[in-house]
Amino acid sequence: MDFTKKLSTYAKLVTDIGVQVKEGDTIVIKCPIERADFARLLAKNSYEAGAHSVIVNWSDDDLTLMEYENSPVEVMEDIPQYLYDRNEYLYEKGAKFISVYAANPELLKNIDSEKIQRVSLAMSMKFKPLMKYTMNDINSWCVVSVPTKAWADKVLPESKDSVSDLWELIFDVTRVNLEDPVKAWKDHLQLLLDKATWLNNSNFKYLRYKASNGTDLDIELPEGHIWTAASSLNAKEEEFVPNMPTEEVFTLPKKDGVNGIVYSSKPLAYNGNVIDEFWLKFENGRVVDFDAKVGKETLSSIFEQDENARYLGEVALVPFKSPISDSNVLFFNTLFDENASCHLAFGKAYPTTLKGGDAMSEEELAAHGVNDSFIHEDFMVGTSDLSIVGIDHEGKQVNIFVDGNWA
Predict the structure, then answer these.
(1) pTM of this prediction?
(2) 3-173 has which CATH code?
Protein backbone atom coordinates (compact mmCIF):
# COMPACT_ATOMS: atom_id res chain seq x y z
CA MET A 1 0.00 0.00 0.00
CA ASP A 2 1.54 3.35 -1.03
CA PHE A 3 1.56 6.43 1.18
CA THR A 4 -1.43 8.09 -0.51
CA LYS A 5 -3.52 4.96 0.01
CA LYS A 6 -2.44 4.69 3.66
CA LEU A 7 -3.28 8.33 4.30
CA SER A 8 -6.68 7.90 2.72
CA THR A 9 -7.32 4.75 4.79
CA TYR A 10 -6.33 6.53 8.01
CA ALA A 11 -8.65 9.45 7.31
CA LYS A 12 -11.43 6.99 6.46
CA LEU A 13 -10.97 5.21 9.80
CA VAL A 14 -11.33 8.54 11.62
CA THR A 15 -14.57 9.53 9.87
CA ASP A 16 -16.12 6.04 9.62
CA ILE A 17 -14.97 4.41 12.89
CA GLY A 18 -13.94 7.45 14.96
CA VAL A 19 -16.97 9.76 14.78
CA GLN A 20 -19.06 7.67 12.36
CA VAL A 21 -20.31 10.48 10.14
CA LYS A 22 -24.01 10.19 9.27
CA GLU A 23 -26.38 11.91 6.83
CA GLY A 24 -27.05 15.50 7.88
CA ASP A 25 -24.19 15.75 10.41
CA THR A 26 -22.21 18.86 11.26
CA ILE A 27 -18.51 17.98 11.59
CA VAL A 28 -16.05 20.27 13.38
CA ILE A 29 -12.35 19.61 12.70
CA LYS A 30 -9.48 21.15 14.64
CA CYS A 31 -6.18 20.66 12.82
CA PRO A 32 -2.66 22.14 12.58
CA ILE A 33 -2.43 24.27 9.44
CA GLU A 34 0.74 22.35 8.61
CA ARG A 35 -1.45 19.31 7.98
CA ALA A 36 -4.15 20.96 5.88
CA ASP A 37 -3.93 17.99 3.52
CA PHE A 38 -5.27 15.69 6.23
CA ALA A 39 -8.04 18.10 7.21
CA ARG A 40 -9.17 18.23 3.57
CA LEU A 41 -9.31 14.42 3.45
CA LEU A 42 -11.43 14.36 6.61
CA ALA A 43 -13.75 17.00 5.13
CA LYS A 44 -14.01 15.11 1.82
CA ASN A 45 -14.86 11.85 3.61
CA SER A 46 -17.42 13.63 5.79
CA TYR A 47 -19.25 15.21 2.86
CA GLU A 48 -19.21 11.91 0.97
CA ALA A 49 -20.77 10.23 4.00
CA GLY A 50 -23.61 12.75 3.98
CA ALA A 51 -22.45 15.55 6.29
CA HIS A 52 -24.25 18.82 5.58
CA SER A 53 -21.55 21.05 7.06
CA VAL A 54 -17.83 20.74 7.80
CA ILE A 55 -16.16 23.46 9.87
CA VAL A 56 -12.35 23.57 10.18
CA ASN A 57 -10.57 25.43 12.98
CA TRP A 58 -6.87 25.82 12.23
CA SER A 59 -4.08 25.82 14.84
CA ASP A 60 -0.54 27.09 14.26
CA ASP A 61 2.31 26.56 16.71
CA ASP A 62 4.29 29.49 15.28
CA LEU A 63 1.42 31.91 15.85
CA THR A 64 0.75 30.46 19.31
CA LEU A 65 4.38 31.05 20.29
CA MET A 66 4.31 34.59 18.89
CA GLU A 67 1.23 35.34 20.98
CA TYR A 68 2.86 34.09 24.18
CA GLU A 69 6.03 36.05 23.42
CA ASN A 70 4.30 39.34 22.61
CA SER A 71 0.76 39.55 23.94
CA PRO A 72 0.25 40.83 27.53
CA VAL A 73 -1.04 38.13 29.87
CA GLU A 74 -4.03 40.32 30.77
CA VAL A 75 -5.08 40.32 27.11
CA MET A 76 -4.63 36.54 26.75
CA GLU A 77 -6.65 35.92 29.92
CA ASP A 78 -9.61 37.86 28.52
CA ILE A 79 -11.27 35.04 26.57
CA PRO A 80 -13.84 36.50 24.15
CA GLN A 81 -17.43 35.47 24.84
CA TYR A 82 -18.05 34.82 21.14
CA LEU A 83 -15.63 31.85 21.28
CA TYR A 84 -17.68 30.29 24.06
CA ASP A 85 -20.99 31.06 22.32
CA ARG A 86 -19.77 29.58 19.04
CA ASN A 87 -18.69 26.33 20.66
CA GLU A 88 -21.87 26.08 22.74
CA TYR A 89 -23.95 26.57 19.58
CA LEU A 90 -22.11 23.72 17.82
CA TYR A 91 -22.43 21.37 20.80
CA GLU A 92 -26.13 22.15 21.12
CA LYS A 93 -26.54 21.56 17.40
CA GLY A 94 -25.23 18.02 17.94
CA ALA A 95 -22.00 18.51 15.98
CA LYS A 96 -19.35 15.78 15.94
CA PHE A 97 -15.80 16.86 16.76
CA ILE A 98 -12.50 15.62 15.32
CA SER A 99 -9.40 16.98 17.07
CA VAL A 100 -6.13 16.45 15.20
CA TYR A 101 -3.53 16.89 17.94
CA ALA A 102 0.12 17.30 16.93
CA ALA A 103 1.61 20.14 18.96
CA ASN A 104 5.32 20.67 19.52
CA PRO A 105 5.74 19.21 23.05
CA GLU A 106 8.35 21.86 23.94
CA LEU A 107 6.78 24.83 22.18
CA LEU A 108 6.54 27.00 25.31
CA LYS A 109 9.64 25.80 27.19
CA ASN A 110 11.13 29.33 27.19
CA ILE A 111 7.90 31.11 28.18
CA ASP A 112 7.37 32.23 31.78
CA SER A 113 5.53 29.41 33.57
CA GLU A 114 3.28 31.82 35.49
CA LYS A 115 2.02 33.30 32.22
CA ILE A 116 1.26 29.84 30.82
CA GLN A 117 -0.54 28.90 34.03
CA ARG A 118 -2.66 32.06 34.10
CA VAL A 119 -3.74 31.67 30.48
CA SER A 120 -4.44 27.96 30.94
CA LEU A 121 -6.56 28.64 34.01
CA ALA A 122 -8.51 31.38 32.24
CA MET A 123 -9.26 29.03 29.35
CA SER A 124 -10.25 26.21 31.69
CA MET A 125 -12.60 28.41 33.71
CA LYS A 126 -14.20 29.93 30.62
CA PHE A 127 -14.94 26.65 28.89
CA LYS A 128 -15.62 24.38 31.88
CA PRO A 129 -19.42 24.40 31.37
CA LEU A 130 -18.84 22.95 27.90
CA MET A 131 -16.88 19.95 29.20
CA LYS A 132 -20.16 18.12 29.85
CA TYR A 133 -20.77 17.65 26.14
CA THR A 134 -17.72 15.42 25.75
CA MET A 135 -17.26 14.11 29.30
CA ASN A 136 -20.91 12.93 29.31
CA ASP A 137 -20.70 11.64 25.72
CA ILE A 138 -23.51 13.93 24.59
CA ASN A 139 -21.60 14.64 21.36
CA SER A 140 -19.38 12.29 19.36
CA TRP A 141 -15.70 13.21 19.47
CA CYS A 142 -12.43 11.69 18.35
CA VAL A 143 -8.80 12.70 19.00
CA VAL A 144 -6.14 11.63 16.50
CA SER A 145 -2.62 12.75 15.61
CA VAL A 146 -0.61 13.39 12.47
CA PRO A 147 3.08 14.32 12.12
CA THR A 148 4.24 17.90 12.14
CA LYS A 149 7.93 18.68 11.63
CA ALA A 150 8.64 19.92 15.16
CA TRP A 151 6.87 16.98 16.80
CA ALA A 152 8.45 14.42 14.45
CA ASP A 153 11.94 15.81 15.12
CA LYS A 154 11.36 15.49 18.87
CA VAL A 155 10.16 11.90 18.58
CA LEU A 156 12.77 10.75 16.01
CA PRO A 157 15.80 13.04 16.38
CA GLU A 158 18.14 10.67 14.49
CA SER A 159 15.85 10.21 11.50
CA LYS A 160 16.79 11.62 8.09
CA ASP A 161 13.09 12.05 7.29
CA SER A 162 11.34 12.26 10.64
CA VAL A 163 7.92 13.18 9.25
CA SER A 164 7.78 10.19 6.88
CA ASP A 165 9.07 7.84 9.56
CA LEU A 166 6.54 9.11 12.10
CA TRP A 167 3.77 8.62 9.56
CA GLU A 168 4.76 4.96 9.28
CA LEU A 169 4.72 4.56 13.05
CA ILE A 170 1.26 6.09 13.22
CA PHE A 171 0.03 3.82 10.44
CA ASP A 172 1.36 0.84 12.39
CA VAL A 173 -0.23 1.66 15.75
CA THR A 174 -3.58 2.68 14.22
CA ARG A 175 -3.76 -0.63 12.30
CA VAL A 176 -3.72 1.11 8.91
CA ASN A 177 -0.92 -1.20 7.75
CA LEU A 178 -2.97 -4.34 8.35
CA GLU A 179 -4.70 -6.12 5.46
CA ASP A 180 -8.20 -5.12 6.59
CA PRO A 181 -7.95 -2.11 8.96
CA VAL A 182 -11.72 -1.80 9.46
CA LYS A 183 -12.10 -5.45 10.51
CA ALA A 184 -8.97 -5.14 12.69
CA TRP A 185 -10.53 -2.17 14.50
CA LYS A 186 -13.85 -3.89 15.01
CA ASP A 187 -12.10 -7.00 16.40
CA HIS A 188 -9.95 -4.84 18.66
CA LEU A 189 -12.93 -2.92 20.03
CA GLN A 190 -14.66 -6.20 20.84
CA LEU A 191 -11.58 -7.47 22.70
CA LEU A 192 -11.51 -4.35 24.87
CA LEU A 193 -15.25 -4.63 25.47
CA ASP A 194 -14.75 -8.21 26.68
CA LYS A 195 -12.15 -6.98 29.23
CA ALA A 196 -14.50 -4.25 30.44
CA THR A 197 -17.34 -6.75 30.81
CA TRP A 198 -15.16 -9.04 32.95
CA LEU A 199 -14.13 -6.15 35.19
CA ASN A 200 -17.71 -4.98 35.58
CA ASN A 201 -18.84 -8.49 36.50
CA SER A 202 -16.01 -8.74 39.04
CA ASN A 203 -17.13 -5.48 40.75
CA PHE A 204 -13.86 -4.89 42.58
CA LYS A 205 -13.83 -2.49 45.52
CA TYR A 206 -10.08 -1.81 45.50
CA LEU A 207 -7.16 -1.93 43.08
CA ARG A 208 -3.63 -2.42 44.46
CA TYR A 209 -0.72 -1.28 42.28
CA LYS A 210 2.87 -2.40 42.88
CA ALA A 211 6.05 -2.10 40.81
CA SER A 212 9.79 -2.25 41.39
CA ASN A 213 10.20 1.50 40.71
CA GLY A 214 8.54 2.20 44.07
CA THR A 215 4.88 2.35 43.07
CA ASP A 216 2.73 1.12 45.96
CA LEU A 217 -0.76 2.52 45.55
CA ASP A 218 -4.26 1.55 46.67
CA ILE A 219 -7.24 2.87 44.73
CA GLU A 220 -10.81 2.52 46.00
CA LEU A 221 -13.55 2.33 43.36
CA PRO A 222 -16.95 3.89 44.12
CA GLU A 223 -20.11 1.83 44.34
CA GLY A 224 -21.71 1.73 40.90
CA HIS A 225 -18.49 2.36 38.95
CA ILE A 226 -18.49 1.26 35.30
CA TRP A 227 -15.50 0.02 33.33
CA THR A 228 -15.71 1.47 29.83
CA ALA A 229 -13.91 0.21 26.73
CA ALA A 230 -12.76 2.06 23.63
CA SER A 231 -16.11 3.03 22.13
CA SER A 232 -19.00 5.09 23.48
CA LEU A 233 -22.54 6.10 22.52
CA ASN A 234 -23.58 9.72 22.04
CA ALA A 235 -26.96 11.18 23.04
CA LYS A 236 -28.48 9.82 19.81
CA GLU A 237 -27.21 6.29 20.65
CA GLU A 238 -24.64 6.52 17.84
CA GLU A 239 -21.33 4.74 18.46
CA PHE A 240 -18.02 6.59 18.31
CA VAL A 241 -14.38 5.99 19.33
CA PRO A 242 -12.98 8.95 21.35
CA ASN A 243 -9.30 8.09 20.84
CA MET A 244 -7.50 6.56 17.86
CA PRO A 245 -5.34 4.70 18.71
CA THR A 246 -6.82 3.26 21.90
CA GLU A 247 -5.78 0.29 24.04
CA GLU A 248 -7.45 1.20 27.32
CA VAL A 249 -10.26 0.05 29.57
CA PHE A 250 -11.05 2.73 32.15
CA THR A 251 -13.22 3.79 35.08
CA LEU A 252 -13.14 6.37 37.87
CA PRO A 253 -11.65 6.18 41.38
CA LYS A 254 -13.46 7.22 44.54
CA LYS A 255 -12.28 10.79 45.04
CA ASP A 256 -11.00 10.34 48.61
CA GLY A 257 -10.06 6.67 48.21
CA VAL A 258 -6.51 6.87 46.81
CA ASN A 259 -3.56 6.23 49.14
CA GLY A 260 0.13 5.52 48.65
CA ILE A 261 2.82 6.51 46.17
CA VAL A 262 3.04 6.18 42.41
CA TYR A 263 5.94 6.79 40.02
CA SER A 264 5.59 7.98 36.43
CA SER A 265 6.77 5.65 33.70
CA LYS A 266 6.86 8.08 30.77
CA PRO A 267 7.26 11.85 30.31
CA LEU A 268 4.15 14.02 30.26
CA ALA A 269 3.88 16.81 27.67
CA TYR A 270 1.79 19.60 29.17
CA ASN A 271 1.25 23.20 28.01
CA GLY A 272 4.29 23.21 25.75
CA ASN A 273 6.60 21.75 28.41
CA VAL A 274 7.79 18.26 29.37
CA ILE A 275 7.48 16.76 32.88
CA ASP A 276 9.56 13.65 33.50
CA GLU A 277 10.64 11.21 36.24
CA PHE A 278 8.06 12.34 38.78
CA TRP A 279 6.36 10.73 41.74
CA LEU A 280 3.20 11.53 43.67
CA LYS A 281 2.15 10.71 47.22
CA PHE A 282 -1.58 10.42 47.92
CA GLU A 283 -3.46 10.58 51.22
CA ASN A 284 -7.25 10.21 51.21
CA GLY A 285 -7.26 10.87 47.48
CA ARG A 286 -5.22 14.08 47.52
CA VAL A 287 -1.65 14.62 46.28
CA VAL A 288 0.15 15.69 49.46
CA ASP A 289 3.73 15.54 48.16
CA PHE A 290 5.46 15.24 44.78
CA ASP A 291 8.73 15.74 42.95
CA ALA A 292 10.04 15.65 39.39
CA LYS A 293 13.54 15.57 37.92
CA VAL A 294 12.29 17.54 34.92
CA GLY A 295 9.46 20.08 34.93
CA LYS A 296 8.58 20.20 38.63
CA GLU A 297 7.33 23.78 38.27
CA THR A 298 5.07 22.73 35.39
CA LEU A 299 3.76 19.79 37.43
CA SER A 300 3.02 22.16 40.29
CA SER A 301 1.07 24.40 37.90
CA ILE A 302 -1.32 21.54 37.16
CA PHE A 303 -2.21 21.30 40.85
CA GLU A 304 -2.78 25.04 41.03
CA GLN A 305 -5.54 24.98 38.40
CA ASP A 306 -8.19 24.37 41.07
CA GLU A 307 -8.64 22.65 44.43
CA ASN A 308 -9.59 19.30 42.87
CA ALA A 309 -6.68 19.09 40.42
CA ARG A 310 -4.76 17.19 43.13
CA TYR A 311 -7.34 14.39 43.05
CA LEU A 312 -7.71 11.66 40.43
CA GLY A 313 -10.53 11.35 37.91
CA GLU A 314 -9.57 8.28 35.88
CA VAL A 315 -8.03 4.83 36.26
CA ALA A 316 -7.06 3.22 32.94
CA LEU A 317 -5.67 -0.26 32.29
CA VAL A 318 -3.41 -0.74 29.26
CA PRO A 319 -1.21 -3.81 28.67
CA PHE A 320 2.53 -3.22 28.50
CA LYS A 321 2.55 -5.39 25.39
CA SER A 322 0.58 -3.40 22.82
CA PRO A 323 1.33 -1.96 19.36
CA ILE A 324 2.43 1.41 20.74
CA SER A 325 4.52 -0.03 23.55
CA ASP A 326 6.06 -2.61 21.21
CA SER A 327 7.24 0.20 18.93
CA ASN A 328 9.68 1.24 21.72
CA VAL A 329 9.10 4.86 20.73
CA LEU A 330 8.42 7.66 23.19
CA PHE A 331 5.92 9.88 21.39
CA PHE A 332 5.82 12.89 23.77
CA ASN A 333 2.13 12.92 22.94
CA THR A 334 -0.36 11.75 25.57
CA LEU A 335 -2.72 10.24 22.99
CA PHE A 336 -0.04 7.71 22.06
CA ASP A 337 1.94 7.38 25.28
CA GLU A 338 -1.16 6.79 27.43
CA ASN A 339 -2.06 3.90 25.14
CA ALA A 340 1.31 2.28 25.72
CA SER A 341 0.93 2.29 29.48
CA CYS A 342 -1.52 1.99 32.34
CA HIS A 343 -2.35 5.53 33.31
CA LEU A 344 -4.19 7.73 35.76
CA ALA A 345 -5.61 11.20 35.29
CA PHE A 346 -5.63 14.28 37.46
CA GLY A 347 -8.87 16.20 37.69
CA LYS A 348 -12.37 15.67 36.35
CA ALA A 349 -13.89 12.19 36.17
CA TYR A 350 -16.14 11.00 33.36
CA PRO A 351 -19.71 10.89 34.78
CA THR A 352 -20.43 8.09 32.30
CA THR A 353 -18.15 5.79 34.33
CA LEU A 354 -20.67 5.80 37.21
CA LYS A 355 -24.05 4.11 36.95
CA GLY A 356 -26.56 6.89 36.24
CA GLY A 357 -23.81 9.50 36.48
CA ASP A 358 -24.60 11.22 33.20
CA ALA A 359 -28.01 12.21 34.63
CA MET A 360 -26.72 13.39 38.03
CA SER A 361 -26.22 16.96 39.19
CA GLU A 362 -22.78 18.15 40.29
CA GLU A 363 -23.91 17.78 43.90
CA GLU A 364 -25.10 14.22 43.35
CA LEU A 365 -21.87 13.28 41.59
CA ALA A 366 -19.83 14.72 44.46
CA ALA A 367 -21.90 12.70 46.96
CA HIS A 368 -20.97 9.54 45.04
CA GLY A 369 -17.24 10.35 45.23
CA VAL A 370 -16.85 11.69 41.69
CA ASN A 371 -14.12 14.30 41.27
CA ASP A 372 -14.86 17.56 39.44
CA SER A 373 -12.23 19.93 38.11
CA PHE A 374 -11.32 22.40 35.35
CA ILE A 375 -8.81 19.86 34.03
CA HIS A 376 -8.46 16.23 32.99
CA GLU A 377 -4.81 15.34 32.48
CA ASP A 378 -3.55 11.78 31.92
CA PHE A 379 -0.15 10.58 33.12
CA MET A 380 1.53 7.22 32.59
CA VAL A 381 2.38 4.73 35.35
CA GLY A 382 2.54 1.33 33.62
CA THR A 383 5.79 -0.66 33.68
CA SER A 384 6.95 -4.10 32.51
CA ASP A 385 6.65 -5.45 36.06
CA LEU A 386 3.52 -3.65 37.24
CA SER A 387 1.11 -5.84 39.18
CA ILE A 388 -2.50 -4.85 39.79
CA VAL A 389 -4.61 -6.85 42.20
CA GLY A 390 -8.36 -6.47 42.40
CA ILE A 391 -9.97 -6.87 45.82
CA ASP A 392 -13.71 -7.53 45.92
CA HIS A 393 -16.23 -6.61 48.62
CA GLU A 394 -15.58 -9.89 50.48
CA GLY A 395 -11.81 -9.31 50.50
CA LYS A 396 -11.04 -11.87 47.79
CA GLN A 397 -7.95 -10.94 45.76
CA VAL A 398 -7.71 -11.52 42.01
CA ASN A 399 -4.75 -10.79 39.75
CA ILE A 400 -5.73 -8.30 37.05
CA PHE A 401 -2.25 -7.44 35.76
CA VAL A 402 0.91 -9.51 36.15
CA ASP A 403 4.25 -8.26 34.78
CA GLY A 404 2.55 -5.33 33.11
CA ASN A 405 -0.04 -7.33 31.18
CA TRP A 406 -3.51 -8.79 31.65
CA ALA A 407 -3.26 -11.76 34.00
Answers:
(1) 0.91
(2) 3.40.1830.10
